[in-house]
Write a structure and sequence with these properties.
The protein is an alpha/beta fold. The chain contains 5 helices and 8 strands; from the N terminus they run H-E-H-E-E-H-E-H-E-E-E-H-E. It starts with 10 loop residues before the first helix and ends with a strand.
């Protein structure tokens, strides 16, 4: 799939298509030993700050939520807790990712999770005409307008 000229559509892509959201599916060669955002940015020949990672966290009061962060940044757990209405927050355990979201590490998309989760995009996404986020599988990214994506998933802004 990573080298297809016409990559297979994911469930996340079908959802965006049904909603009339414009996007491109951008395949890249996966290195299973290195799923880091910088590696994806290198494969896409794009700046790291335009490749966004989808992180799933658990708050102490409100349960699961999502932070979509540029590849060159780490989530600030105190800020994440505050914006999500929690006192504290932590990344979920890797073994929880698939059962909770339907996605695996390196292929987690903010679109099409098992159930909609409160989602917050880092404010820097709004600086770009397009960003890259996972299309729901390893080796495939969406190239998409961040405002369109944020509106589709009903996202808030991180940090406030």
């Amino acid at each position: 799939m990573a080298t297809d000229k016409h990559p297979q559509k994911t469930n996340a892509a079908r959802l965006l298509e049904q909603a009339g959201i414009a996007f491109e599916l951008i395949p890249y060669q996966v290195d299973e030993s290195d799923l880091a955002a910088w590696h994806i940015a290198e494969k896409l020949h794009e700046p790291l700050e335009m490749v966004f990672k989808t992180l799933v966290l658990r708050g102490d009061r409100n349960g699961l939520f999502v932070c979509v962060m540029p590849g060159d940044m780490e989530v600030d757990l105190k800020v994440a807790a505050r914006i999500s209405g929690n006192k504290s927050a932590a990344m979920i355990h890797l073994k929880e990712l698939l059962p909770e979201t339907g996605y695996i590490r390196g292929g987690c998309s903010p679109v099409g999770m098992k159930k909609p989760l409160p989602t917050f995009f880092h404010e820097s996404a709004l600086l770009y005409d397009y960003i890259y986020v996972s299309a729901g599988v390893r080796g495939l990214q969406f190239k998409i307008n961040p405002e369109d994506l944020m509106n589709f998933v009903g996202a808030g802004i991180y940090p406030l």
